[in-house]
Amino acid sequence: MGTLLRLVPPVPALAEALRIDEATAERGFRAEVAYYLEHHLEGFDTERLGDLRRRCASVMAEAAGVDPAGARDALMRSLRFEAFDDAAPALSHLHRRGLKLVVVSNWDCSLPDVLERVGLLTLVDGVVASAVVGAAKPDARMFEAALAAAGCGAAEAVHVGDSVTNDVNGARAVYEEALALAQQVGMLPAQVELHAWLAQLAAYCADWDRVEESTEASATLAEREGLVGKLCLPYALRGLLRWREGRIGEATVLFHRAHELAEQVGWSEIAFQALFGLAIALRDQGDLDGATAALDQAIEVCERAGLIAQSIQATGARAVILALAHRPQAARDAAEMASQMAERLHYPVGRAAALEARGVAEEDPVDGAELLAEAEETWRALDRPLEATRARLLAGQMLLGHDDDRARELLEQAAEQSEQLGVAHLAEKARALATGGEQLRQS
């Protein structure tokens, strides 16, 4: 249910406490959750939170058809949270690197107590709960409160979340507000970075006009002001734009340039992004050995800089390329590694990448296609349509020679989606596969 915590399934305990069947308990609990989400901002202090909990329990009791007496106690006993296994190690690692960590969540005023119970409160520097702020994500006020707690500006912060609506859209609003402020006071380096990060957010959604506009604003400003070290990010974004246009050779040059600059200034996250983009470009150019080498470099950057989440994505992509290169055992090994890392780290993008890797490495084409369909669904839930379309294309390629009708259907759908996303060369590839392309089968 969150980035750091999960709710232990409450229905069995609730059913036992109220002496009802689990289906009835689930109906009551769903009604309570809906009411809480709508009213949670009212729980901004202890007194109001107690009143909110009583009302939530009454809603639950009515939906479940049980006596309200004792419903509040039963509800509160059923609500038990656990930290994800990787949460404490990840927070400890980031603290050792000297980073300030702030939890920002749509929650009532009890959030610090919950974090203390699961052993995470001492590992963070601040806690921002929406009920205390008086606004919920994606409202910019939540992110402003988090930045204030961290003592930094938006250009100096990285936000990690698991909801496109609450986290990505909220981050975009804060970036836009921070950019307006940076322009007002003349903070040129911050303007370069903020334009580029807005371009990156737009790229996830395949909003190419916005990507182009923000990338060129970032690059033009950096070039004009001689901020050479800041050019690595807009260069990587220009590479992505050239890839989208099918100008793969130009894309590889730009990704190489972005990587070199990022290494010179010690910007590991951008060095990874450039190498990952380079691998995708080389893959689509047919240079699978070059693509594998680029991903090996990207994984080295992750290991050096402690970029665990990005390492899962690179390892998953490596499995896909090894499968395309007809190296089934190496693909399976990489997919297994990506899956193991994804199990340890609660990172939705890593889970999607690991599912994709397992799909292409699967020996049975039907099982592989099912895993790729699950990967596609996960990518779509993250509002990453390009990756979702790629997963569908791979599923179609997986079924070639086994279920050609279904394979052609998936490939044609991938072609149509690619055209809608403005990536014509990906559409051409899907149609070429549908009319006699190479199978993606492991043996």
Structural description of this entry:
The protein has 443 residues and is mainly alpha-helical. The chain has helices spanning 11-18, 22-39, 46-64, 71-78, 87-96, 111-117, 130-133, 140-150, 164-185, 188-204, 208-225, 232-244, 248-265, 268-285, 288-305, 308-324, 328-344, 348-361, 365-381, 385-399, 404-420, 424-434, and strands at 5-7, 81-83, 102-105, 126-129. Helix 6 links the parallel strand 3 and strand 4.
- Let me know the average pLDDT: 91
Give the CATH topology of one domain.
Serine Threonine Protein Phosphatase 5, Tetratricopeptide repeat
Number of helices: 22
CATH class bucket of one domain: Mainly Alpha
Q: Total number of β-strand segments?
A: 4
Summarize the structure in short.
With 443 residues, the protein is mainly alpha-helical.
Q: How are the SSEs ordered, and which strands pair?
A:
Elements: E1 5-7, H1 11-18, H2 22-39, H3 46-64, H4 71-78, E2 81-83, H5 87-96, E3 102-105, H6 111-117, E4 126-129, H7 130-133, H8 140-150, H9 164-185, H10 188-204, H11 208-225, H12 232-244, H13 248-265, H14 268-285, H15 288-305, H16 308-324, H17 328-344, H18 348-361, H19 365-381, H20 385-399, H21 404-420, H22 424-434
Helix pairs in contact: 1-2, 1-4, 2-3, 3-4, 8-9, 9-10, 10-11, 10-12, 11-12, 12-13, 12-14, 13-14, 14-15, 15-16, 16-17, 16-18, 17-18, 18-19, 19-20, 20-21, 20-22, 21-22
Features:
single chain, 443 residues, mainly alpha, Serine Threonine Protein Phosphatase 5, Tetratricopeptide repeat, two-stranded antiparallel sheet, two-stranded parallel sheet, 4 strands, 72% helix
